[in-house]
C-alpha cells in the first residue's frame, strides 16, 4: 500500500472539513467531565477522524472518543478515576506531568500490575498542581497511543486568569492508509531508527482542523497538548504575539513566545494567551514549521463579529505558582551525565542489551532496539534495574548529551525539572518542565530535587524510541 503524503491527506482533510458545515466545531474540545468519581473505559471504537466524507476509522479509545473526555478537577481536589479495560490486551493509565504517589503512576510492572482485559484499576490521588496535563496508557504505548488512547486532564486554578474563552487543543498525528484506516506498522524499523512514527494526518481534538471560530477582539487562553507519538510542532501565529503563561502545566513568568513561535515536542504542553484581532473577518493562520521545508497551515482562527475588548500581552496576569516545587540547591547538586546514542547516522555501534554487549544491527533486526542511554538499550525485562538511585530530598543536575541525529523529548515521571541550559545557552526563566527536548547532537541541562519517593520512568517521548531502548528507571529514596 502506498501511503498518501501528509500534505495530500491534510489537503484532502481540510477541503472536506470546510464542506462539512454540519460537523462539530473543530478545535473546540467537547464538554469536559469531572475527573472525580468516574470510570474511564479503554476499548475499541469507530470515530470520524477525517471528517464527514470519509468512512469512520477503527481506533482504540477512552470512552469511545479520541481524545478521551477532558477530565477536569480543581487544584487540591482528588482525581479518582477507575480504568476499565475493554481492550484485548493489558493496559494502564499514566498521568503525564502529575506529581503523584508512585503507586498511581500507571507504569506496568513497575508501579502496578498491568490491568488485564476485563479488569479495572482505581487511580486516586490529589491534584496538587493546577495546569494542563494529559493521560495515556503506559503499556505498549507506542501502539496504544498511536491508535487513539490519550486525553487531556485540566486542573483548574482557584482564580484562573480572566479570559473570554478557554480553548484546549490536543494535537495528535495519525498514520492513515488511503482507505482511511490507521496503518498498523507500529514496529516499522525505519521509524524505530529515525524520527519515530511520524504520521500523515495531524488532528486537533480528534478532527482534521480547518477553522476555529473565535470572536473579534476577545482574549483566548489556548491550552496546547502534544499527544503525538513522534511529531514535534513549532507553531507560529502570524501577526499575533502569543503570551506564554505556563509550560508543561507549571506557570512561567508571562512572556512573549520567542519569535512568536511555540515549540511542543511529544508530551509537552503550553498555555498561551492570544488576543484575537478586533477586526471582524480577520483570519489568523496557525502554521507548523517544526520540520525544515515542511511548513503547513495547521488551522486558522477566524474572528467573527461582536468585538468586545482589546487587551495587550503586557496586561496578561501571571498564574499563581503551584505549591511545593522545591528549588534545587545548586551548590550541592550532584550531576549525572546521560549520554544518548543510537539510531541511524550515529556513532553508536553496539550497546548493552539485557546485560550483554550487542551490535546495533542485531539490536535492530532481532530485538527491535536502536537507542541507548549511557550505553544501555533498556528492555522491559531489565527495567527494574535503575539507571540511577537518588537520595530523597537531594538536588540533582541531569546533563543530557544527545549524540544522535534526532531530537529526543526526555520525560521524567513524578517530578518537574528546571531547564537550565540547552546547547550550553541559558534558557530564559529556567522553566519547570516534565519533558525536556534534547536537540540533535545537542545538550540539555536540568536540575531538580528528588523529592518524590519511588521508581520513576525517564524516557524519550518519541514512543518508538522509548520502546527501542531509550528509557530507564530513576529510583528515589
Ligand atoms: Cu507521557 Cu512515560 O509518559
Ligand atoms: Cu527519542
Please give a structural write-up.
With 477 residues, the protein is mostly beta strands. It has 3 domains: 19-158, Sandwich (Immunoglobulin-like); 170-315, Cupredoxins -  blue copper proteins (Immunoglobulin-like); 334-476, Sandwich (Immunoglobulin-like). 8% of the residues lie in helices and 41% in strands. It contains 5 helices and 35 strands. Strands 21, 24, 27, 29, 30, 31 and 33 form a 7-stranded mixed β-sheet that branches. A 6-stranded mixed β-sheet has the order 11-10-13-18-15-16. The longest helix is centred in the first third of the chain and has 14 residues, at 6-19. The radius of gyration is 21 Å and the shape is globular. Bound molecules: CU-O-CU linkage (C2O) and copper (II) ion (CU). CU-O-CU linkage binds at residues 94, 96, 136, 138, 267, 411, 413, 457, 459, 461.
Helix-and-strand structural type: mainly beta
Q: Compounds present? A: CU-O-CU linkage, copper (II) ion
Report the radius of gyration as a whole number of Å: 21 Å
Largest sheet: 7 strands, mixed
Quote the CATH topology of the largest domain: Immunoglobulin-like
Protein name: Multicopper oxidase family protein
Pfam family, one: Cu-oxidase_3
Organism: Futiania mangrovi
Keywords: Metal-binding, Oxidoreductase
